What we know:
The chain is mainly alpha-helical. The protein has helices at 20-34, 53-64, 78-88, 96-105, 112-139, 147-168, 190-206, 225-240, 246-255, 265-271, 279-307, 313-338. α2 crosses α3 and α6 packs antiparallel against α12.
Amino acid sequence: MPHTPEPDEDDLDTLAPPQPVFHVEQALLGALLLDPHRQDDVSGIAADSFSTAAHAALYGAITTLPRPDPAEHPKNTKWLDRVLAKAQEQARGLTASYLHTLVQVCPWPSHAPAYARMVEAEHARRRLHTAAERLVHTVHDASLPHPVQTVLTEAEALAAVADDIATRFPPRAGVLPRTPAPPPPAAPHPAEAAEEEQLLLATATAYPAGIDSVRWLLPDDLTVALHTGLWQCLTALARRGEPVDPVTVLWEAQQRGLLDDASAPDEVLRLLAEPAGSVEHWGERALQRSLLATAEHTGRRIQAYADDPANTPFQLVVGARRALADVAAVRTRWQHATAATPPQRQRPAPTTRAGPPTTRAAPTARSSRATR
Length: 372
């Protein structure tokens, strides 16, 4: 095959294979170069299923060019010359010697369907990793005007990838990834989150009637351990129909052992003494943070699963769906929180640095805190 090397072309024969799939791709391409009719036995892959641009270009050329005559193909290199010329349009570094290498390293051309299945499995892993990476990136995109909706859209896209993989690799019951899940992410704005959670607790203490309107808010949505415990105290008192004020909440906190954590009683009383805004507003803020944190943790979990080559496509699908179920659960609560509610007495909502403004509010004792 005539070939004039380019000065900047890569010597693909000397590249170290980055992953085992590199060898699989070589074997598949070698099989198709030897016996082009074996394309009929290969399914589930396309040019973008390959891990390198050179392999993608070769597969694209093999599958788009007219097939050679089976009787003439072993006698000359005319078809191989056309494949090389076509592939070089996308990958200039390809050489005739690399095509010769592919033919030489193919163990059994008849195993092409098995090689294609392996290429498809590795491509599924990369697709899942890419979609999870996009989800994590979206969580941290501060430029988004509507972060929750955009993040949920990316979560849906990730779920669609998992569903598509499942159509080719149906998950088996009980086959979970063995990869340890990464720890949950830290709060992106810990000081802001802590301050808003304090306002939630103080406002709920001052206006306990608002607690029932935020039943979609769970203690674990709060980022500070003390705040989680105090919200449990508030909801317990409200559920039992007992009086709610800073002193009764303090007593409930003592009964639950919250003061054993070096939390001084006067500190708790100060925390509960300055209400502002409405319980619904601060509850939505806490839930939004929880949703974004859950989405990030889900994306990182799926990335970790996809990064582990020991996980099969079956395990990746099961692991991804389990992780995405956490996002779905928070999403359901978010939909309840943001659903239309009957008209209420309103006042200007507190101004905050993140999230859309809201006009729902309750009477406050110190409204100046709401605009800090």
